[in-house]
Amino acid sequence: MNTPDLKEARRRTNNKVSIKENEYKVTDKQRKIGLNKKYYIKTYGCQMNEHDSENISAILNDMNFTKTESLEDADLIILNTCAIRENAHNKVFGLLGRIKHLRQTKNIMVGFGGCMAQEEVIVEEITNKYKWIDFVFGTHNIVNLPNVIEKAYDNKKQEVEVFSCEGDVIENIPVKRDSKYKAWVNIMYGCDKFCTYCIVPYTRGKQRSRLPEYIINEVKDLIKDGYQEVTLLGQNVNAYGKDLGINYTMANLLEDVAKTGINRIRFVTSHPWDFNDDMIDIISKYDNIMPYIHLPIQSGSSKILKLMGRRYTKEEYLNLFKKLKEKIPNVSITTDIIVGFPGETEEDFQDTLDVVDACKYDSAFTFIFSPRVGTPASKMEDNVSLEEKESRLQRLNQLINKYSKENNDKYLNKVVPVLLEDYSSKKKDCLKGYTDTMKLVNVKADDIYLGKIVNVKITSVKTWSMDGEIVK
Ligand code: SAH
Ligand code: SF4
Ligand code: F3S
């Protein structure tokens, strides 16, 4: 069985990308499979996976399955998995224990998809040790789910469809969106950056951008359907268009999406390496491009950044950060940080704390390095103990939380725009939503305000959220 191979994977960047518009088909027979059956879907991982689950749901709808929120109630259980860190794996294998019991006691089907299904070691484990799982499908195979599910029901043996048609951009897969007000819009798939710790370039394949006209048309359709906000999705959105060869960049795309007039535009994730001045100018020029940027740094030590293959230094990152703060009024910036990368000394870790002190991030996702099979970093010598890594994570989180609270405190008594998107899960008689700068706010409001962007006065502030009331 092969493990991810950097050399081999790098070769792919020359393969030609083809756009496929007519791949998705459901036969009359397949439409009957889901009649009187319910599906349950569990999604792990990033926004990309959440959006894939919206596609999977729409396909199951076309096959006449209906959705249930209860695992016990389901005739079909789908796991859309993530491979980014070991604990993502562990969560999935934990749930599989519960599902196995259900599978043994009643007549249900179980499907295993997502990024773990793109890892050969995992597929090997499933075919050997989890023979009761009915079908396995990769991130590139979602479009073919009707056939995979049909075969699994007919043949009663494990179906595995995990091939890497990673040179394709597949258009016209149906989507059943979780929200009526904000939508994910893929602008590119895959990643060619090959940061040395990361599994994504192997599980998601080579970078391929969607053509601008498809993206713009999707946004225009969303406006017609009443959507207020779109988030443009990619592992590396700033590199958008580089693979198209039509001289059209992320800055061009942002401007064209802004011109559609949609109320709110967001984008994730921005790799600092490709963040150019044109992009910054466009973000500051258009009011409907939100002043919020997720700008992962990963480490503050230039030595570790080099080992990670991030291709910027601490100083280059800080310059970019400063420029963003200067040129985009009121911008909020968040980040991702890994501690305990192989070879990270206390001094390197101090560099990371220095950067956090300099940037005073609005918030951050922080992780302990997790070796992924086959990636270059998993073969590097790692002499930092787990205790030390945990202590670094804790110290880092304390600092991050301090700045989150300080940043939020500045909002007290201010009036800010909030898109009210759902009922608050925390507070009674409240709706929740996000500010333009991506702060979570619980707002005392009637549900006639759902789906509206309203002005909210912030009345109290915590580290992770705020409370407020509508000002008329
Ligand atoms: N494309 C995005 C990151 C996607 S993965 C970017 O380049 O910024 C989300 C985050 O998971 C990463 O930013 C990184 O901080 C973390 N991550 C990825 N691989 C990891 C690993 N092997 N161990 C620990 N954290 C990891
Ligand atoms: Fe992973 Fe992001 Fe690096 Fe791509 S740019 S390899 S997704 S961390
Ligand atoms: Fe996880 Fe795959 Fe996203 S590995 S973070 S679900 S791209």
Question: What's the layout of helices and strands?
Answer:
Elements: H1 6-11, E1 18-20, H2 28-33, E2 38-43, H3 47-62, E3 66-67, E4 76-81, H4 86-105, E5 109-114, H5 120-129, E6 135-137, H6 145-155, E7 159-161, E8 168-170, E9 182-186, E10 188-189, H7 200-203, E11 208-209, H8 212-224, E12 229-233, H9 250-259, E13 264-268, H10 277-285, E14 292-294, H11 302-308, H12 314-327, E15 332-339, H13 346-359, E16 363-368, H14 386-409, E17 415-423, E18 430-435, E19 440-444, E20 453-461, E21 466-470
The structure holds S-adenosyl-L-homocysteine, iron/sulfur cluster (SF4) and FE3-S4 cluster.
The site of FE3-S4 cluster (F3S) has 12 residues, from α3 and α7.
Plain-language structure description:
The protein has 472 residues and is α/β, with parallel strands linked by helices. Among the domains are: 6-161, Rossmann fold (3-Layer(aba) Sandwich), CATH 3.40.50; 179-290, Transcription Regulator spoIIAA (2-Layer Sandwich), CATH 3.30.750.210; 415-470, OB fold (Dihydrolipoamide Acetyltransferase, E2P), CATH 2.40.50.140. It has helices at residues 6-11, 28-33, 47-62, 86-105, 120-129, 145-155, 200-203, 212-224, 250-259, 277-285, 302-308, 314-327, 346-359, 386-409; strands at residues 18-20, 38-43, 66-67, 76-81, 109-114, 135-137, 159-161, 168-170, 182-186, 188-189, 208-209, 229-233, 264-268, 292-294, 332-339, 363-368, 415-423, 430-435, 440-444, 453-461, 466-470. α3 (47-62) links the parallel β2 and β3. It starts with 5 loop residues before the first helix and ends with a strand. The model has no long low-confidence stretch (mean pLDDT 95). The protein binds S-adenosyl-L-homocysteine (SAH), iron/sulfur cluster (SF4) and FE3-S4 cluster (F3S). Iron/sulfur cluster (SF4) binds at residues 191, 193-195, 198, 200-201, 235-236, 271. FE3-S4 cluster binds next to α3 and α7.
